Amino acid sequence: MVNQNGEAITEQNLRGQRTILYFYPRDNTPTCTTQAIDFTGHLTELRAKNIQVLGVNGDSMKKHQNFINKHHIGFDLLVDEDYQLAKELGIYRQKKVFGKESMGIVRTTLLIGPDLTIEKRIDDVKVKNQLEVLFAE
Fold first, then answer.
1. Residue 72 — pLDDT band, cuts 50, 70, 90?
2. What is the number of domains present in the chain?
3. What residue numbers bound the domain in which 73 lies?
4. Tens of pLDDT along 5-48?
5. N or C: which end of the chain has fewer CB within 10 A?
6. At what angle do helices 30-41 and 61-71 cross, to 10 degrees?
7. The pTM is what?
């Protein structure tokens, strides 16, 4: 998988630290923007705990670059244009938005351990309290 700059992000980039890997539907939509800005606002605190943040959706590198620049997002966004990773994890599925059913990414956050195991998974994330829920015992 590549980030917004076309740089490969592999398992090696995840090993040895915890990673918040969050899946969101689209760049530059209100809730997705709020979510990315919220993570950016907590980066200092998260990095102090040796936790990195990576966002994932089906948008292109160019869209990710524009989103990062427009909203000053402080972490990499990964390109999953064919939704391969989202499908493997059961995150790309039938959903209902404003009464209309379609296939897409369902907002989901994973906390991945330094050994690449999924420590926690939150489906249908509520952006307002996403970090509280992620780190609740």
1. very high
2. 1
3. 2-135
4. 999 999 999 999 999 999 999 999 999 999 999 999 999 999 99
5. C
6. 60
7. 0.94
